[in-house]
Amino acid sequence: MADRDGKPDPYRSYRFRVEIGGVDRAGFRECSGLDTSQDPIDYREGIDPLNVRKLPGLIKYSNIVLKWGISDDSELWDWRKEATDGKVARKSGSIVLLDDSGQEKMRWNFVAGWPSKWTGPSFNATGNEVAIQTLEIVHEGLTKAKK
Predict the structure, then answer these.
(1) What is the mean pLDDT of residues 61-85?
(2) Strand ranges inside the chain, DSSP E
(3) CA gap 35, 65 in Å, rounded
């Protein structure tokens, strides 16, 4: 969809889907952590008088953080429980951006992910919010694919 200047409108952040291990997981409230960085390494050779060269260092990926309301679905809890029991099951997955009509527009794929942290909800007897849980997934790579 284009605005009146003929430029395409940006996609909305609330239309997304998460796939983990080939299973389409819907109903997440929030997904964050699509982040990659690379620290520079300072390097100086003995023949360089006062100059420091900047070399590319290791590539790092942030944890993918998923937040969603607690329900009877325990599949992601079970995946985390396996990891705490010493049976880490690595899975690949995708965060999929959708347009307003629900069509896939972009996808970020992660590889060798496993759940490193689960956080339960905060309870408040005077509130009326949904009980939200959080899962952090560490992984070893992130790529972007455009539809």
Answers:
(1) 94
(2) 16-20, 23-25, 28-32, 36-43, 53-61, 64-69, 91-98, 104-119, 132-138, 142-146
(3) 11
Distance of CA 80 to the CA centre of its chain: 16
Q: Are strands 36-43 and 142-146 parallel, antiparallel or unpaired?
A: unpaired
Check whether 95 has a pLDDT greater than 80. Answer: yes
Closest CA to 134 of 119, 122, 123, 121: 119
Whether pTM exceeds 0.90:
no
d(CA 24, CA 4): 35
Largest Cα–Cα distance of the chain, in whole Å?
69
| pLDDT of 46 | 82
